[in-house]
Amino acid sequence: MAQCVQSVQELIPDSFVPCVAALCSDDAERLTRLNHLSFAELLKPFTRLTSEVHMRDPNNQLHIIKNLKIAVSNIITQPPQPGAIRKLLSDVVSGSQPADGLVANVITAGDYDLNISDWSVKASVPWYRNWKDTLMEMKESSLNTATTPWFESYRETFLQSMPASDHEFLNHYLACMLVASSSEAEPMEQFGKLSQEQHRIQHNNDYSYPKWFIPNTLKYYVLLHDVSAGDEQRAESIYEEMKQKYGTQGCYLLKINSRTSNQASDEQIPDPWSQYLQKNSIQNQESYEDGPCTVSSNKNSDSNLLSLDGLDNEVKDGLPNNFKAHPLQLDSSSDPSNNIDGPDHVKSASSLHETKKANPGIIHGACLTLTDHDRIRQFVQEFTFRGLLPHIEKTIRQLNDQLISRKGLSRSLFSATKKWFSGSKVPEKSINELKNTSGLLYPPEAPELQIRKMADLCFLVQHYDLAYSCYHTAKKDFLNDQAMLYAAGALEMAAVSAFLQQGAARPYPAHYMDTAIQTYRDICKNMVLAERCVLLSAEILKSQSKYSEAAALLIRLTSEDSDLRSALLLEQAAHCFINMKSPMVRKYAFHMILAGHRFSKAGQKKHALRCYCQAMQVYKGKGWSLAEDHINFTIGRQSYTLRQLDNAVSAFRHILINESKQSAAQQGSFLREYLYVYKNVSQLSPDGPLPQLPLPYINSSATRVFFGHDRRPADGEKQAATHISLDQEYDNESSEQWRELEEQVVALVNKGVIPPNFHPTQYCLNSFSDNSRFPLAVVEEPITVEVAFRNPLKVPLLLTNLSLLWKFQPKDCSGKNDEEVKELVTSEPEMIGTEVISEFLINSEESKVARLKLFPHHIGDLHILGIVYNLGTVQGSMTVDGIGALPGCHSGKHSLSMSVRGRQDLEIQGPRLNSTKEEKTSITYGPDRRLDPIIIEEMPLLEVFFIHFPTGLLCGEIRKAYVEFVNVSKCPLTGLKVVSKRPEFFTFGGDTTALTPLSPSAAENCSAYKTVVTEPASVCAALTSSASSVHFGIGIGSQPEVIPVPLPDSVLLPGASVQLPLWLRGPDEEGVHEINFLFYYESVKKLPKIRHRILRHTAVICTSRSLNVRATVCRSNSLEDEEGRGGNMLVFVDVENINTSEAGVKEFHIVQVSSSSKHWKLQKSVNLSENKDAKLGSREKGKFCFKAIRCKEKEVATQSSEKYTFADIIFGNEQIISSASPCADFFYRSLSSELKKVQPSAHMEKQSVEDAVRLIQKCSEVDLNVVILWKAYVVEDSKQLILEGQHHVVLHTVGKEAYSYPQKQEPPEMEPLKFFRPENTAVSLRPSVEQLSSLIKTSLHYPESLNHPFHQKSLCLVPVTLLLSNCSKADVDVIVDLRHKTTSPESLEIHGSFTWLGQTQYKLQLKSEEIHSLQLKACFVHTGVYNLGTPRVFAKLSDQVTVFETSQQNSMPALIIINNV
C-alpha cells in the first residue's frame, strides 16, 4: 500500500472515537451561525485533547489515555442513504488529486524508474544486487514511497460515514450536549425542553436512529453566551442556577463571539475550520435556517462532448450514470430507494453536506478571537475530564460487575437465563438460517451484548488488553449461538485490539480478520463491513511489511458491486507489490491498469488517466507493443474526455509511430481516433502554428535535392543529354570520374592550375555528397526536393495538398540584404513559387518518394524547413467507434474520410567529424546544408541533343551523327568545351580548310569519309599527303581529353541553337562501353560565386567484333631502293575477320591501307597474288605485304616536327583522304592514347640510359603507323547496308609484332621469396641483343647454284660478296670473323661443311649509314647444299670505350647448291 500520513497506531484510534450528540436550541444555533458554523462544526478543530487523560479500570489500576479525540455531531434521525454515501465517497475521491507542479516521486525498482506521485525521494532497488542495502535505506526513510491522499480521504470518509448498527456499539452515542443561549427568555426551561426531546428520540420506538450506547445517556448542559451582544451578569446568574440543578460536573458556560463581524476585517485570525469543512462529513448534518442545502443535479462538465467510447457521459440527478454499479449499502433490503431525490429529499439529503463547500469568500469564525478559541478548547477538555470519562469509567465498572456475576453462574443456568432474556429469539434453526445474518437478533439487554458493550468502551478509551479479553469472550458466545454477524464483529475488533496492545503481548491474529471478512462478505452479504475489515487489516499487515498478504487481501475484496472501491483497493495492492522486498514491478503495473479500468467505470476519469500513465512507465520500451498500444489508446481517450487534448494527441501519436503489431482494422481505428482528436485540437487554435504530424515516417537523411530542370524525353531521333536526374542511383566511382573530368577542364582553362577555391559542381545533393557548403541555385531554375516517406501502418495514408515549407531572405540586386529582413513562409509566390501535390497515396507498409518543387524568382537565402500536408485515410467501410465518417470535403480520385493539416520538419544530421583529436574523442557532427541553397543571379543554361546517335557499333566502325547545342537561358554562353576519358571515341572534325570534293558514291552511301575517285592505273602506288596534328587539337603539352567545341563566333546567344557534325568510332574492345562526356561552359558575364557550369552525358555503346589486325615491320634485304639508298623496310599486315555472323555482317572489304609517320611512308603493295579485291568472309584471314621507304630528306627537314606524312594504298577505285577528317582525327586520337600508355616507361629509360645505348636503341626503333580502312556489307531487315571503319596499328620496333586491339596482359608469375639481402652490385647498362643486332645490317651476294666438275678439279672456289650497312647515325667499328664453325650436328648433317679462304678476320670502320662490301672466297670439296651465313660480325661504337659486341647472325640462311657436272 502507499505511504500514509498517519501510522496505523494513530489511524485506528482516530477511526474509533467516543461519539457525542449535540442538540441545540434555535437561539444557540443562531449564535454559532454568525461564524458560518454549526455548534458541532465549531468544536471540530478542538476535539483532540492536548494532554494525557487518566482513568481507573475495573481493577482500580490507573490507565493513561493519550491523544484522545471525541466526535461531536448533530443528532440526525434518518440513517444516511446508500446513494448519498456513494455520491459523497465519489466526490471525496474526485476532489483529491495529485498536486500539480510538485517534484515527482521517483522509485527505481530494477530497471525501472517509476515516477509515482508527489515528492522526491529516489530509492534504487535493483533486482539482483545491492537490494538489501538499498532496502534498509528505504526502511529507515519514512518517505520511501508515494502517498495517495485520495485513498486516505476515501478511507477517512468511509469510516466516518459508517451508519450505526445493532451488532456493535463503537459509533453509538455515549453522551449528549444540550446547548441553549443565554439570550433566551427562559434558558432553564429551554434546557428542560431539549432534555425531553433527547429522551423522546432515544426511548420512543418511532426513532430507530440514531443509536445510543446505554439507556442512561450522559446529558451535559452548555450555556452559550455572546460576549459582544449579551448580558454577562445574566449569563453568570443562569450558570449558577444550572450548577445548582445539574451539578458542577454536568454543565458549562461557554463564552463566544468576543467581537462583531464588522471588526473581522481589521485583524486576521487563523481559520482552523477550513481543513475540516472541505472534507465532506456525513455525521454533522443539519437543515440550516438559511435554506436547505440540496444536492443540485449539476451536469458533468464533459457531458456535452462527443464520447470517444460511445458512452453517454451525462451525469443524471447529480450521480454518475453507473450509479447502480457500485452501491455502498449495509444490506440489500435496508433502502428500497436508490435515488437521493426520493420523497425524503429535503429532510435527509439536505444533510448530505455538512456545509456548503468552503467558499473562498466566507470567513469561518469571523466573530471569534484567539481567546474564544482557547475557551472552546477549554470547554472540550472540561467536558471530557468532568463529564464523559467519569461516565465511561462508571459504565465500564457496571458492565464488568455484570460480567463477573455472569462468570459465577454455571453454563447451563446461564443458558437458561439467556433463553429467558431473549424471548424474541427462536432457538431451533436450520443450517441455512444459522448462516444468515438476520437469523439471530439479540435483545438490547442480552448478556452477550453487555460483554460487547464493555469491550467497545474499553477499546474507545484505548484499554486494549481488557478490550481483547472481552471481544474474545464475546466471540466464543456468538459462535456458539451461530450469530455470525455478531461473531464477525467480535473477531474483527479482537484482531485490532491484539495488534494495538502495548508491548505486543500476542501476535496479530490475521486469521481472525480473514474469518471476519469472509463472514461479512459471504454469509452476511455486507460488503461495507467487509471493506472496513480489509482497510484495517491491510494497514496492519503493511506496518509489519507483509506486503504480499496485504495485496492478496485487497485484491480479494474487489468485486463488481462497486467500481470505486475496487479501483482504490487495486491501486493499493499495486503499491504493495512495488514495496515488497523484491519489488514486483510488472505486477504493480498490471494492477494499476486494472485500477485505472475500474476508476474509468466509476467515472473517475482523472484517476483512471493517472493509473494508466503510471503503468505506462513499466510497459514502455520493453517490446510489449500490444500492451503499450492498449495503454496509450486508453490514455488518449481519457485525456480527450478530460479535454487534455495535447495529452490525447501525444498518446495516439505513440500508438501510430511505434512499429505496431495490430491488425489493419485496429490500426485504421487508431488512426481515425487520432485524426478526430487532432482535429479538435486544431480547431481550438486555428491560427496557431501548424503542429507536427507523426505519419508518415520521413527518412530525413535520404532526402535528395536537385537543382535544375527535368531532363527532356527523347523526341524521335533527338536524344537529350542524360545529365543528372533523381532517377539515377548514386555511384561513388562514377562521381569520382566526373570530378576528375571537371578538374581537367578547369585546370586547362586556368592555365594548368586548379584554383584553390574550386569545388566540383553538384547538381544533386544526397547523403553521399559533400553538403558542408551552402549550395548555389540559379534564379528561375526549379529546385526539386525528393522526400522519402514510409508508411509503417497496414492501412493506406492519403496526403493531400502536399508542399514544401520554406523560409526566404531576399537580397537586392547588389547582393546585400534588404533593409527589412523579411522571413516569408509559404506566403509569397512572387518570391518563391511552390508546387503543390494535390494527392499522394502511400499504401500499407510502403516506402515511397515524393518530389516537390520550388521555383525561385528572386535572389537571396532560401531555407527549406520541412513539408506541410493534410494527413488522412482513404474512406473504407470502417468508422471510428461511436463516430460516423465525417462528410469528406475533398474531391479527388480517393475519397477522404477525415484529414488534418500539419507539418513535419526535415532535419538532417551532418556527417560525424573525425579529423582533429577533439573530434575523435567527442561525438560531434558537421553541418548538412543541402536544404539551405543560396539563390544567385541568372546563368546560361545549355541543353545538348544527339541526333542519329548509334547504340551499337562494330569495333573500329566510323559513324557520323549530329549534336545540337541549345542555350535555353536568357544569358549568352561561351567557352564551350567537352572533356572525356575516351577522346578516341569521337571527334568534331579538324579545322583543315582543304575541302576535298565528295565523290558521288560517297554521297550515295552516306560515307563518313572524304573520298576522291582515282585512276585504275595508280592502284598499287601510294598517294601521299600530309597534315599536322596541331590542326586536330593534338598539340604538345595540351590535354587530349579536353576538346573545344567549334561554335561559330565561340558564343551561343540566348535561345540560339547550333548543330555540329560528330563522328564516332567504335572502341576496339567488344562489349558494352559507358562513355562519359562532360560539357563545360561559362557565362559571358563573370560572376563571383559561380564561374562555370557543366552538363553531363553518358553514352552507352555496345560494340561487336569486326577485324583483328596484326602487323610487323622488318628490314628489307635488298639494300638499294630505286634511288640507290638503303633503309627500305617490309611491312607485313595480317587482317582476320573475327566477326560472328550475329550482327548480320556478310563480308569485309579492305578498301585502303594508309600509313602515317614523320619519317616513313608506304610505297607500294608487294602482294604476290594478282587478286586485287581484298574480301574477307567470316573467320577468313588475309595477308598483305607493303614496301616502306623513308620520306625524302628535304621533306623531313622542311616540315615541322609535328608534321605527319600520310600515304594511301588503295584497293578500290576511291581514295579516302586519310589526312583529313575524320580519318586523321581518329588516327591522332588513337596515337595520343597509345603514347599516353607508352610514355611513362619510355621517359624513365631515357633519363637513365647512356647516349651510346640510346643510339643503339634508335637503330631498332621505327615510327610507322598503319591505318586499315574497311567496308562491311551488312544485311538488315532484307536491306543491304554498308558500314565503314578503320583500325590502327602502331609499329614501334623492328621485328616486333603490333596489334590493333589491346592485348590482355597475363599476370606475372610470383617470384620466389628471398630471405637474404642481395648485394648491391652496380649493373652496367647494356643494350639488348635485338638492339645490337640492328646496328649493322649484313647481306651475302653469291650465285644461288653452281655446277663444278669435281672429277677434273677437286676444289670448287666460289666468290661471295658480304655487304655491311651501318644503320645508325654514328661511326661503328666492325670485326668480321670467318673462323666460325657450325658445331651443332643437325646443321652439319643438313648443310655439310666448307671453308673460307684468305684472310680470316677483317677490321673496319663504317661511317654513319655507310655501306661497305667485302670480297670473300668459299671453298667446297664435294657437292651439296651449304649455308654460307657463318661469318660472325662484331660491332661497337667508335667513340665508346665499352665494347658492345654481339654476333650479327642473319636470320635467313644463305643457301648455295653445288652440283657436279
Shape: elongated
Number of DSSP helical runs: 33
% residues in beta strands: 25-35%
**Count of DSSP strands:** 56
The largest sheet, given as strand count, sense and whether it forms a barrel, is: 11 strands, antiparallel
Distance between the termini: 142 Å
Task: Report what the structure shows.
The protein has 1461 residues and is an alpha+beta fold. Helix content is 29%, strand content 25%. It has 33 helices and 56 strands. The strands form twelve sheets. Strands 13, 24, 26, 28, 30, 33, 38, 40, 42, 44 and 45 form an eleven-stranded antiparallel β-sheet that branches. Strands 11, 12, 14, 16, 18 and 20 form a six-stranded antiparallel β-sheet that branches. Strands 15, 17, 19, 21, 22 and 23 form a six-stranded mixed β-sheet that branches. The longest helix has 39 residues, at 370-408.
